[in-house]
Amino acid sequence: MLFRVVIFVVISIFWSCSFKATTKNPLKSEWIAFQRNGLVLNYQSNDTQFSGDTRAKLIETFFIVYPQLIEHFNPEASKTIYFLMDTSFNQYPAARWGDTIRYSSAWFTKYPKDIDVVTHEVMHIAQSYPSYDPWWLVEGIADYVRYKYGVANVAGGWHLPEVTSSQKYDNGYRVTARFLVWCENKKPGCVKAFDHALRTNRYNSNMWSTIFGKTVDELWKEYLDDAAI
Hints:
By secondary structure, this protein is α/β, with parallel strands linked by helices. The N terminus is likely disordered. It has a five-stranded mixed beta sheet. About 50% of the residues lie in helices and about 10% in strands. Helix 5 crosses helix 6. The protein has two domains: about 120 residues, Zincin-like (2-Layer Sandwich); about 90 residues, no CATH class. It comes from Haoranjiania flava.
């Protein structure tokens, strides 16, 4: 429990940071701007050996996925986004600060087909929640979106996990995402409702009972009995 609290605090600090690219050059290289249908993607990299093909796929995925996320979840989301491909960033495949996503060039050099990291991260921009609470639902929704809107999940070897009794809905990421897929099948629109409530700071655990007539714990027990999606 203490470990989870520490992780939550650390992630919350990152989430609240407004690491937004401006006229400064964090990577000491030039910005390259790509524009399409009212969106601007600014790309910067300090990896001179980074694959041009992988870069093109990351950029194309943005222009395929992000317009859909804006339309379905948040029309007010930022229309100018920043991608940083960084040789020194190796903690995760990627992380989002404000309107900026910092990517690990080492990750994509090793896993060049894991393109839908973009899908997960740009959903965080579309989310634009005032807080990272509850973290498991925030990350679960982002992975739900990767599952629903991803363009290369199969090629990237990414999939939702098999269900086991040791899992819990608040594990976050793919475990929560799979549960949300199941919930959406029962009550279409519930994920969008959760997303909106989180963005407007109106989410609370009672929403589950309001939408489903059952608590989240009761739903999880039902899910474990028949988790087919």
